[in-house]
């Protein structure tokens, strides 16, 4: 009798979740976010290394990785933040296809560079889709919750795409921990005309520290005080009292949401609507940077046009393919 195609959670790590692309689309108007991996660049490379379609369900690990016991033989790959992975206590390389046998234990430790790691298994994680996706929205329990000790997760059947064992050279990986990873592009809007000209300039010429009170919903930043345009201080009462208040409206994913004097970047599990202005928006091509920045690190923003933001996403999507892998 063949062993079950699954793995068991020995230690869950810090809010480790199943994620999948493109996420849970089509329910934004009901307040259900897309979820999915924040650093989708690393996520996709992990899947390609084990022969999966690049958007297959895999694990996202934050800060402290899990310990997992494998009940079947499987190919695994770990990408993203450096979490010193071991198999039965022996170090294994990241960004590389690894053969794991039934009964072995995979363990990840605390992240040394970056914030989030991704673990892909050949065949992918075969949990039951909810509203069309296996991506977990942990805070609402949609698609499941973060891993728990003793939990088992099923694996799917590997497809026919696995053509060998591979490695991702540094040139094809996201440059975690680099100056580039902390320089984040943004586009103006949708509410940039609610800030003063001085604050619009200050935002892209200042340092912004990531607060520890950040998660997959939003990243809180500390930095200079904002000042506001005339329309924010002389507005109709339905817009609220604080200059950053506005009549409830939809929030774009990646919005830099100004709650009083605290900017919050709304990422994968963010709310879809609210009553604060959003002077800038981070394009999706920059999300891998948001997924890997650690609390107390410094971000700098720079403006790009909408056309450039869209081109960056097209370039990234076309770069993360089988061509990024090198045979071992």
Automatic annotation (TrEMBL):
SMART domains: AHS2. This is Aminopeptidase. One of its GO terms (molecular function) is ATP binding. It holds the Pfam family CT_A_B. It comes from the Bacteria. The keyword Protease applies. Gene3D superfamilies: Cyclophilin-like (2.40.100.10). Residues 29-319 form the Carboxyltransferase domain. It comes from Halotalea alkalilenta. Keywords: Aminopeptidase, ATP-binding, Hydrolase, Nucleotide-binding, Protease.
